[in-house]
Amino acid sequence: MLRIATIGTSMITNEFIAAVKENPQTEVGAIYSRNADRGAAFATTNGLPNVPVYDDLDTLLADPTIDLVYIASPNNLHFDQTKAVLLAGKHVITEKPAFTNPDQFAVIARLLNARNHQYYFEAARHIHTPNFIKMQHALAGHTVTGALLSYAKYSSRYDQVLAGEEPNIFSPRFAGGALQDLGVYLVYAAIALFGKPLAAHYEPHMLTTGVDGGGVGTLTYPNFTVVLRPDKTVQSRVPSEIYLGKDTVWTDNIAELQQLRYYHGSGEQFDDLATTQPANGMSSELARFVDIIQQNDRAAFAELFQLSARVNEVLYALRQDAGLHFPVTVEAAADDE
Q1: Hey, which CATH number is domain 2-124, 3.40.50.2300, 3.40.50.300, 2.40.50.140, 3.40.50.720?
Q2: Is-above-0.90 flag for pTM?
Q3: What digits encode the pLDDT tens for the residues 283-313?
Q4: Who's near 30: CB < 8 A, 6+ residues apart?
Q5: Record's InterPro entries (predicted)?
Q6: From 19, 178, 251, 334, which residue has the greatest number of CB atoms within 10 Å?
């Protein structure tokens, strides 16, 4: 049984806790929030009134009953908190995007190289779902000739931007913006399916806050191009498609993958490839992470770690290409978005 502590009190942590409760190999062992009252209310809301609530990170990390820490704080805090968890001798799951640049990733890599009994995972849930795996199988043996990966979802926090405010997810101080928040899904899918690209280019739609509200990216491969369309200022229903010459692999949403089809030629005939997805989108990734830890599967871990490293490199390259820069040091933020 793995006892898990959570950092962060936003909706995604609610979902993660629900996944922990569903998994017979895990249980919630502690809640962390910089605000003790918020943490206590969060624990009660999630049906965990008797779980310890910490408002000091060092005290949480000193708790010998905690095996693993899940980090869902604002993006700019991920690196320092992940480093602290590893130095405390615990496993860690960090929400995507885990780190803002390859230098941070290299530090985590060095820590893990010295601690081969510990595990770090980036929580890119969509690549662990049954339908993403079905998509990978559908592409096997085919020649990819291009792809359009789209994820555009209007953010309720964008209304605050329009009102002249700077919420965390639209702030460079907190490593925000559409590419970081939604584009990470697209980059993860592209690299998991096609590998690391030769080049990366991003044309952002800049907001007054100093980050991108959306944009168009391209990942260049030897014989095809992948177009990326992340956006947090519009509500789009454009699907994602992978082109195999005259055939097309289609999904309604590359981050959710509820529908998955293989279209034959130019007609409307298709094979329905979709299978049943877990009700909780985080269940599949948690199950895989727990299995890797319990089986001490270093090969599976190395594969996921390399994927995480490549995603970090490509996201950074896209931002550099677009002139999107985040401060190296920023003050602490609230636990939620």
Answers
A1: 3.40.50.720
A2: yes
A3: 999 999 999 999 999 999 999 999 999 999 9
A4: 3, 5, 6, 51, 52, 53, 54, 60, 63, 65, 66
A5: Gfo/Idh/MocA-like_OxRdtase_N (IPR000683), NAD(P)-bd_dom_sf (IPR036291)
A6: 178
